[in-house]
């Protein structure tokens, strides 16, 4: 990944990101239909924001978040949003593709994922987030982007590192039912594509 942009808004703030979908709960676990949900716009980052009314009133941390559109650059109208998703497609059918989150054009996180539209199978591989952006929801946004492209697929992951950060990340994810953790379940198309891997 590239170095952080020279004007890094994350360095001076407590920005947290979430997928730009309607969430049931806030980052502190409150039911937003009861606690109250609000929204706004971050002028600097040119991104929509969401917040929990109860968290704001209680002055809790992580009361507000930035919302990232799960569509890739090129799938959306031209935008000056600071955070955009892009992708590096697989070289062969069933191969590994990369989903990348960019801050003003600089990659700050990426996820490797292997999918097969024919077999409706997906394997979540490596999630990498630049150290300056850890614990801000960025890995979850990448995961949400991958899962959104494979709705109804049978998902699995590659081996999960036995570290506290890795276990903490995967323990907080809302994965589809029957997702197999730590044992990739590749279809024949994926296994064939693996032969072409460099």
Automatic annotation (TrEMBL):
Domain N-acetyltransferase: 53-198
Regions annotated as coiled coil: none
Source taxon at top rank: Bacteria
InterPro entries: Acyl_CoA_acyltransferase, GNAT_dom
GO molecular function: acyltransferase activity, transferring groups other than amino-acyl groups
Protein's name in the database: N-acetyltransferase domain-containing protein
Phylogenetic placement of the source organism: Bacteria, Bacillati, Actinomycetota, Actinomycetes, Pseudonocardiales
């Amino acid at each position: 990944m590239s170095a952080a942009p020279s004007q890094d808004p994350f360095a001076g703030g407590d920005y947290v990101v979430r997928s730009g979908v309607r969430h049931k709960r806030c980052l502190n676990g409150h039911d937003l239909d009861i606690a109250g949900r609000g929204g706004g716009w971050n002028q600097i980052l040119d991104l929509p924001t969401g917040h929990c009314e109860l968290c704001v009133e209680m002055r809790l941390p992580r009361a507000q978040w930035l919302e990232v559109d799960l569509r890739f650059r090129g799938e959306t109208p031209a935008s000056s949003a600071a955070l955009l998703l892009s992708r590096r497609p697989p070289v062969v059918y069933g191969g590994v593709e990369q989903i990348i989150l960019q801050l003003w054009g600089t990659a700050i996180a990426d996820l490797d994922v292997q999918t097969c539209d024919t077999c409706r199978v997906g394997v979540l591989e490596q999630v990498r987030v630049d150290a300056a952006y850890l614990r801000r929801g960025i890995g979850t946004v990448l995961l949400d982007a991958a899962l959104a492209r494979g709705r109804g697929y049978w998902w699995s992951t590659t081996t999960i590192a036995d570290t506290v950060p890795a276990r903490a990340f995967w323990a907080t994810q809302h994965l589809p039912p029957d997702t197999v953790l730590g044992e990739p379940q590749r279809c024949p198309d994926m296994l064939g594509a693996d032969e072409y891997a460099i």
